[in-house]
Design goal:
The chain has 346 residues and is an alpha+beta fold. It has ten helices and twelve strands. Helix 5 packs across helix 9 and helix 9 packs across helix 10. The longest helix is centred in the C-terminal third of the chain and has 19 residues.
């Protein structure tokens, strides 16, 4: 299981503060990294910019990964957009996903704004132009390749903790990260969620994937009630209709894949199934996105245990049933599904 935990640093501190604290506590090292996401564009005709923002990888003394700390663009409440950027904080923007991946490979996230695009400019045989606080890289025809710009608006404060896969002793591993965050004054943001990444292996079987779709489609409201999903959390949505319709019978894998393609499946649903349908997955996981924000490991572990039981039920050959119409009865029936899965464990 891997976990993503959205937190907010107090004013005057940042995800870099937490990274340094963790490295100092455990005798490890911090390395700056780039984090991919997107933001709305103010350019007419361009819906969004892809961007790279500064994150931090914390490694233990033996070199193994402790965690990665990155920005999350959905965390906005309590941030002052008028705040000027602290020294050293900037982002890189482009409108092409292939370019942004190439820029990531050739730009040092620890470098200052002035040189953020220098190595990339050499690839194109071009030079970086300064436009006020912004650095712009054009190709030989004058087409813009990328911009580097200061990162203001307190965007250094949002901090998503991304763990490596945790095989055992989940509570201890989470508290290793969250206890220091609490001591530094980090809090749970208004829009926060916790995301669980679980092994996708069982869900490459069509019956298990069909059950997973049934669980998150038909049991959506009971799941949100039991897990206490944050209503302020964005980038959540019911699974798309073509995929839900595909599990009404006993679909083969090809039918599920066709339905996912027809639905233009993205990660921004209650459960992220996109990696199941990639020829070469970035990581072979299913991402559960509806857990509420938390800053105590016990809260995460308790909810994750319930999710794990429900996923075990999905792996069984029998179809997941439709819930009762009454909300209270549906909630109880969901807990019964989990209890039934627990009872079958050796």
């Amino acid at each position: 299981m891997g976990v993503e935990i959205e937190l907010m640093a107090p004013p005057g501190r940042s995800r870099s503060t937490l990274a340094t604290d963790l490295a100092d506590r455990y005798g490890g090292q911090v390395r700056a990294v780039w984090h991919h996401d997107s933001e709305p564009s103010l350019v007419p005709g361009l819906g969004r910019f892809l961007h790279l923002t500064q994150g931090f990888e914390v490694r233990r003394p033996d070199g193994s990964l402790l965690c990665t700390l990155v920005d999350d663009v959905t965390l906005l409440a309590g941030l002052d957009p008028r705040t000027p950027p602290p020294p050293g904080w900037h982002r890189i923007l482009s409108d092409d996903s292939r370019l942004i991946r190439l820029i990531e490979r050739h730009s040092d996230p620890a470098a200052p704004l002035d040189t953020a695009l220098s190595a990339v400019a050499e690839l194109w045989g071009s030079t970086v132009e300064q436009l006020g606080a912004v650095r712009r890289l054009n190709d030989a025809t004058g087409a813009t390749i990328a911009l580097a710009a200061p990162q203001g608006g307190e965007r250094e404060r949002p901090c998503e903790i991304v763990t490596p896969p945790l095989a055992t002793d989940h509570l201890t591993a989470l508290e290793e990260l969250l206890a220091p965050a609490r001591e530094l004054g980090f809090t749970v943001p208004h829009e926060a969620a916790v995301h669980l990444h679980v092994d996708a292996g069982p869900f490459h079987q069509p019956h298990a994937l069909a059950n997973l779709v049934r669980l998150f489609a038909h049991w959506r409201e009971p799941l949100r009630a039991v897990l206490q999903t944050n209503p302020a959390c964005t980038r959540l949505a019911p699974l798309p209709a073509p995929l839900v319709q595909a599990v009404e019978g006993t679909p083969a894998w090809e039918q599920l894949a066709e339905a996912a393609e027809a639905a233009e499946l993205t990660k921004f649903f209650d459960v992220n199934l996109t990696q199941l349908f990639r020829e070469v997955p970035i990581r072979d996981t299913v991402e559960i996105r509806i857990l509420p924000g938390a800053i105590h490991g016990a809260d995460i572990v308790h909810r994750a245990a319930l999710v794990e039981l429900l996923l075990d039920r999905c792996a069984e050959p029998q179809p997941v049933p439709v819930p009762p119409a009454d909300p209270a009865a549906a909630t109880n029936a969901l807990l019964d599904l989990a209890a039934g899965a627990l009872a079958t464990q050796p």
